[in-house]
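ESCALATION

Customer reports they have been waiting on this structure for their group meeting. Please prioritize. Original submission:
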Amino acid sequence: MKRRALNLSILLVALLFGCAEDEATSPASSVDFTSNSSIDEQRPKTIYAELPATPTYEDVSEEALAGYRTFYFDSVFGDDSNNGSSANAPKKTLAGLPDIFATYGTSPLRLLLKRGSLFSENIVLGGYRASKDAPFIFDSYGEGELPVVEGNCSASEMLTNAVIKIQEPYTRISNIEVTGPTCTRGIYVLPRKSGVFQDIVISSCYVHDLNWNWRYDSLPEDTHPADIDPESVTPLRSVNRYRRLYGGIEIFNGTTNADESKKTGPIVFNRLFIINNRVENVSHVGINIYNYWVNRGGIGYGYNKFVEEDPDYQDFTTGVGYFPNTNVVVSGNVTSCIGGDGIIIDGTDYAYLEHNVSYKSSYLGRSGMFNAGIWLHNTRHGYFRYNEAAYTYLQNGAGDGQGFDIDNACEDIHFCYNYAHHNEGGGLLLCNNSSDVFVYDKTGALASSAPRRLKGIWRNNFARNNVFVHNGNTQKRERSAFITLARGCDGFIAENNTVALGRIPGQHIINCEDTVVSYGHSYKNNIFYSVNDNGAVFANHTIDKPLFDGNLYFQIADGKPLEGQLMLSDDRHAVLENPYLLIPNHVDGYEAAKRVVPSVSIREKAQVLAEQLRFDLLGMDTSTGPYLGAISK
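Update from on-call: job pushed to the front of the queue and completed.
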C-alpha cells in the first residue's frame, strides 16, 4: 500500500465526509478546534453526531387493566372445573385456551400463570382480537420462580413445532420460562394473515434447552465444545438442525412451503420488541428475526418480486416489491451456549440492536456453515450499540466465528459502543454478496426471462467508539483482531475504536478473505495496541486506497507493500508510542470495556475529525476536542 498523493487524500476525505463548507454552515451543532494557522483554518469544523432514541412501548395502565377479562392458571392448586376468573379459583392446565379465545376473544384478554407452576403442553396464542391500546397479555402472577411451559414435540413436527406459537398482532408475552428438549423452537411468532403485523412484545422470558440433550457431568457453560460430541446434544437430526428457522425466540413471516407463503402474501412486522430475555442451550439460533419478503441483489432468497427500477416499491396485494420489517428493537437480551448464531436481525428498516450479550455462540459448530455472535443482515438504518459478544467459537468445521457482523446488503449501520472479546473468528465481520435475481416491473411482469447478477447494496456504514480485546485464534493468525472483510463492502468509516491484540504471532488486524475489492474505507483516531511485538499486520490487500490517518500503533509491524498491506508510513499522522493501555484481569461484562483506557495522556496526538459522536463509550460529552480510542478522557 503505497503513500497516496496529498490531493487524492483530500478528495477522498471530501467524498467520505461531504463538503467542508456545507458542514461549516451548521453552527448550532459544530465546534471549531482548529488553530490560527492558515493550513488548519482550511480544516472542516467538527460536526457532533447524536444517534436517535430507541422506540418504546407503553405499559398497560392499571385503569386499562380493569377493563380486561383475566384468566388465572395454577398447575399445583388449580382445577379445570373452575372458571379461572380469579386467583382464588384458577384453572389447572392450558388445555382450555381455544375455548377461551372462541368465547371471549373479542374482549381485552389477559392470561396469567402462577409462578412456580409447570405446564407440560404446547400452546397456540391465536383466535383473539387485540389492539395497540388493548394488547393481548400473557404473563405471570404471584411470587417465586417463573412459571414453566414445557413443550413436547416429535421428529415429524420438526419443521413446524414450537412450545408457544403466537399468531395474532398486538400480543405481549412476559415473565414465562419456556423449554422443550424435543422441540425446535421456543417462542415462535408466525402470523396467519398478510399485511403489517403490529406491536409484538416478548420480554423478560427465560428460554432454554431446545432440541437439546445434555448428557455430560459439567454444565454447558463450564464445558468447552471441543470436549463434547455435538451430534449427541441435539436429538432431532432428521432435517438440518442448523437451519436458521429454528431457535429460542423465532420471528418468521412465511411458511416452510413457498407456494403457500406466496398465496398468503407479504407479511412484515412493525414495532417488534424483544426485550430483556435470557436464551441458552439452544441447538441453533438464540434470537432470530427472519424475513422472507426481501429478495433483492446480494440476498438471493425470498418470495417477493424485486423491482429494480424502484427498489422501495411495495404492493401488498400482488406481492411485487420489497417488504422490510420496520422499527424492530432487540435490547437487553442475554444468549449463552447457542449451537449457532446468538442474535440475528434480518430484512429490516430501522433496527435497534442494543445492550445485548452473546456468550459462546457457534457452540456446536457445523461443517461448512457460518455463525457469528450478534449480527445484522439486509438491514437499512441500523443502530447497533452497547452490545457485548464474547467466546464465539470455530469448532467442528464452522466458519466465521466473529463476535459481531454487518452482513450482506446493509446500509447506514451505526456500529457504536460495542465490546468484542475472545471471539475465535475475530472481532467484526463486514461482508456482502452478489446473487442471481429475476427482475420484475411494477405490474409483476418479468423484465427479462433471465436473472440478473446483482450486488448487494452495502454502503455508508460506521464503526465508532468500540472496544476489541484479544479476539482471534492462535491456530489461525488470519482470524483478525479487528475486522474481517469479504466480498466488496464499500463506504466504511472506522473512528475512535480501541483494539487490543493478544499474543498471536503475526495476527492480522484487518484481513480480507477473497479477491473482491472494497472502496471508500477510512480509519482515523483508532488505537491498535499489541501486548508484545508479535508481528501483527494489516493484511488488507483488497481494500482500494484506504485512508489511514492519525491512528496509534504500538508494537504493530510494517506490512509488505507488494502484498498491498499497510506500511505505517502510509498513515501521515501515525502515532507510534506506548499508550500503556490498561486491560483488566477480568474482561467479562460490558463494564470491563470502560476500563480499557490509556494510562498516559495521548489526547493531544488526535486528529480533528469532520464528524465525531457527541458522546464517547462512557457517555461523556466529547466537545472538548478530538481523542484517540473509544474513550475521550
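Sent to customer with the following note: Residues 1-41 have pLDDT under 50 and may be disordered.
Escalation resolved.
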